[in-house]
Amino acid sequence: MRFAPLGDSAVTVVLGEGISRELSNDVMRFASALSSASINGLIEVVPSYASLALYYNPLQVAYAELVAQIRAVSAMPLAVDSTGGPTFSRTVRIPVRYDGEDLAEVAERTGHTRDEVIALHAGRQYHAYVIGFVPGFAYLGELDASLVLPRRSAPRKRVPPGAVAIAEAQTGIYPFFTPGGWHLIGSTMQRMFDPTAAEPALLRIGDRVVFDPIV
Amino acid sequence: MIVVERAPPYLTVQDAGRPGYRASGVPHCGAMDQWSFALANLLVGNRRDAAGLEWAVGAGLLRFEHDSWIALTGAEVEATIDDRPVALNSAVAVRAGQILTIHRLNARRFLYISVRGAVDCRPVLGSRSTYLPAAFGGIEGRRLIRGDVVPIGEVQPGRETVRGGDLSERATIVIRTLDASGVAPDYDAIDVRLVAASDPPVVDETRAESGSAGAGFLESFFETNYAVSLSSDRTGYRLEGDGELSSAGASITSQPVCAGAIQIPPNGHPIVLMADSPTIGGYRVVGTVISCDLPIVAQSMPGRKLRFVRVTIDVAQDELRRRELALAEIQ
Q1: pLDDT at residue A166 above 80?
Q2: Which of A166, A210, B230, B279 has minimal CB crowding within 10 Å?
């Protein structure tokens, strides 16, 4: 575990390198333990792929004191279920119409038919690694290896909300009109972010996500 | 309430921010220059975090429907109320029907306008600040336009009336000023303090892979004079250096970031993340501007020179405590 200060009001805790489901599970377990540990001055804990950050009020807790509290939590045993995964995962199903502008191009570039692309994308369970980019945008992995393409060389200026897209080994759903460099393969009516809800993002880190094709 | 008679290109409702939703991808949001924003509120007797207006780029007119107090802080502007010049950094009286005209912004980037009673739009996720990328907060999640009506909250009874003063006087009535000298950010400073991502310093260059930059890179970073680039907005300010472009920029596994964090993308041009920056970032972070100095960066116009100097977290946090005590005393 390595600590990297993120200014005077946040600290990054690095647990490892790269992207893997194991590491992601470690990050989530630790984030959950930190959130429930009633750490003095803590505002929020934000997990990412291999690290997490704690945002705190430095008027209530100094850096050294905070780091000591984090170390104390890391020394405690963490909740693990028999499968080794975190105990709080949910499965979220998202209905998708595979009508994306780039579907034909993705099929051509990956050497599949359109139906094969759909079957490959919808035929597996994804893990929500990180929420970011814009509110409610979840980075879901991993894509079938045969669907992996680099991002588009020219990002679109405006991708519509609900667009289901792929890039590299990940897939995601655009919650708002935003610029976007991923390949659009489908669309969903499912609202990904509702600012009026107590928990505004549909997806949480650690969720299992399944796409249900609408035919 | 206030009616927008003529809107500048940029005018939004902002407050102290929207903490607590980063895990859902919601950035901190809020006023870019939190110091000027807080000062504007204190001047008119509002809570420090109460919602007000953030104004940039051009001229415009606001009409007040009630007697009230207002304060203008942040950018240096030429402003009048019915042809009488308005004192900056002061609480001044406005009467129902009067029009505040902002003629031009002469220095700095963001003007803050507080109104006694504060802007009272509906809070979204605990904040009234406008977050343009996802179009929520403030008034319909957007910039204010001509004809918009901005609701203002009730003021405690007995203190709502502006008394005294002769409206025929040439200047507006100044109700009070505050002495914040000694704790206010030095907006003309070239040197901006940051806490390095590796504190204590990382000497081993191989450890730079995990998102903090190595010692060699840090040295050249601190020796470089930067200028704020034209492509700067509420999500981040891009900087251009006067020296060789560093090769230390890199894409990394995305990590959580915050306002003030300085990313070095592969092209070597640093980006200082600002209030609306995404919650995670995929570029190496060299350090984070200290909270007390972030207003200096926020108020920097394109072309303005900046240099970064390193301080310890203890210095940064002491400075914050000192400023907090001073603000509490002012209040």
Answers
A1: yes
A2: B230
